[in-house]
Amino acid sequence: xxxxxxxxxxxxxxxxxxxxxxxxxxxxxxxxxxxxxxxxxxxxxxxxxxxxxxxxxxxxxxxxxxxxxxxxxxxxxxxxxxxxxxxxxxxxxxxxxxxxxxxxxxxxxxxxxxxxxxxxxxxxxxxxxxxxxxxxxxxxxxxxxxxxxxxxxxxxxxxxxxxxxxxxxxxxxxxxxxxxxxxxxxxxxxxxxxxxxxxxxxxxxxxxxxxxxxxxxxxxxxxxxxxxxxxxxxxxxxxxxxxxxxxxxxxxxxxxxxxxxxxxxxxxxxxxxxxxxxxxxxxxxxxxxxxxxxxxxxxxxxxxxxxxxxxxxxxxxxx
Length: 319
Hints:
Elements: E1 4-8, H1 9-18, E2 26-32, E3 45-52, E4 58-63, E5 70-75, H2 86-91, E6 96-104, E7 109-115, E8 126-134, E9 147-148, E10 152-156, H3 162-173, H4 185-197, H5 201-205, H6 210-214, H7 218-226, H8 229-244, H9 252-255, E11 260-268, E12 272-282, E13 286-299, E14 302-317
Antiparallel strand pairs: 1-6, 2-3, 3-7, 4-6, 5-8, 8-9, 8-10, 11-12, 12-13, 13-14
C-alpha cells in the first residue's frame, strides 16, 4: 500500500542515506503533451514516464510537490541554460516533504504531466532543447541518484497580442464563408434571432463570441483556464456542436426558437452595449414569456454578443 509521510528536510535526507533505493534500470522519458504551436507565454505541458526495465521490483519516492523529483535543463541556440522560476526555487526551500513510495514491477510504468513553465521561464522565441533530471530518492543537497531523460526539441514562435490571438480563435470556430456587416447592437440581436427562427446555424453564430458565452458559467471558466490552447479550441468547437444539438439546461436558453420577439431597449457606448428583448414561446394552451438581456462588445469594429441573462415573465393563456 502506498503511504504518504510528512518528514522534515533533515529527516528525509537521513532516511535516504540510510536506506538508498535500487534505481539501476529505471528509465525516464519525456515528450510534449498535446503538442501545439507554442508562443513565449504559452503553457508547455510535458508527459513524463518512469519505467522499470529490470527483471526485479524497483522502488522510488514520489513527492506531492514534483520539484523534489524533477529539474529541467532547457538550452537555447547559444547553449545557455534558462534560469529556474521563482516558483521552482521557492518550492525547494520548504523543510517538509510529503511523498509516497512507488513500486514498479518489471516492465511497469508510472506517468504524469508537468508544466515546464512552472520550472523555467521561456521569454524569447527560439528552438530549445529540453531534458529532464529525475531524482528517485528526492532532491537534496546530497542527492546522488539522478536519472536523465531523453532530450526533446521545443520550438517557440514569436508571440501575438491578445487581440490577434482572439481573432485567430474566432476564425477557427466560426463560418468563414459569411462576411460580417457593421450592424448596430439591436440589429445584431435581431439578425441572430431571425437566423435561429430560420434554422440557419452559420448566420446564428456569426455575431456570437462563443468563448465569452461559454465562460459565463464560473465552473466552466475555471476549467477553461486550466486547459492548453489546443484543448480550449477543441472545447469551443464541441460547445458549438452541442448548441446545434439544442441541449437542455442553461445552454438551451440561448438556442430556443421564439415564436415572437420584440426589442424593448438598446443602449451602448463606443465599446459596450446592452439589448433587452421580450420573447414568447407558444405551447398548446399557454404562451411562455421571458425577458432576455444581451450583453455586447465591440471588437474590430463589429458588435458581438458576449453574454445574456434571462428573466421569467408571467405566462399568457392562448385562446
